[in-house]
């Protein structure tokens, strides 16, 4: 049997297979089932500052849920925080830490819609926030990022310099739709597919040899091949969600066992033996992750 363990944000996971923030991690019965099925860690649904403002008991409820999860589970529990104000981020993060979570994932949901705000100003908001949080709390911090930055690599390096422990690539925002009959804007929820994993694979490959912090992939990981690719380019953790809605939580165990079998069949002793083998700095032709790959695709399909 191969050693499936992996270290993410300083926490040892029994395998890279975590469960991302979703309704699946919203109640005690469900998370117990996830652990039994093979989850190595989980991220709780986000605590939104707006929800705390509208219901003063929301923060204490969330804290109580952390405590109940930690009492019942043997796997790392990541709280997820989505704030609005600096005071809200700092106060709520401290409360979640005190409740006993193993780490905090910052779900910084921000749509850059102001034409007068530069990309540097937006990045600085992230950096300033994480810098203050890092000085305020002691548990590991991961930052869940969108791919919609002008320089993803530069931002990740700046985040690393603040002392953050990991980044999660990439957040899948709910996109607004328009009901043409009622002339209203409504949110839509679409499950991911394997093609979305390629964006995560590309950026993890590019980042792996340039930074030291932990990297997690989320979005589009549905099959053993998807899991293998994310690990081969350097991911320390793979956060699953849509595939569990589609195939059930037992898919965690099937993917874990398939990963174990693949490693044994190929003669690898464990996950660490393959982690990063196909990253940008280690493949024979790294241009495949850059512009050259675009040109090759055009040539092959012309």
From TrEMBL:
Keywords: Flavoprotein, FMN, Oxidoreductase, Pyrimidine biosynthesis. One of its GO terms (molecular function) is dihydroorotate dehydrogenase activity. Pfam families: DHO_dh. One of its GO terms (cellular component) is cytoplasm. Signal peptide: none annotated. InterPro entries: Aldolase_TIM, DHO_dehydrogenase, Dihydroorotate_DH_1_2, Dihydroorotate_DH_cat. Residues 61-261 form the Dihydroorotate dehydrogenase catalytic domain. Pathway: Pyrimidine metabolism; UMP biosynthesis via de novo pathway. Its cofactor is FMN. It comes from the Bacteria. GO terms for biological process: 'de novo' pyrimidine nucleobase biosynthetic process; 'de novo' UMP biosynthetic process. This is Dihydroorotate dehydrogenase catalytic domain-containing protein.
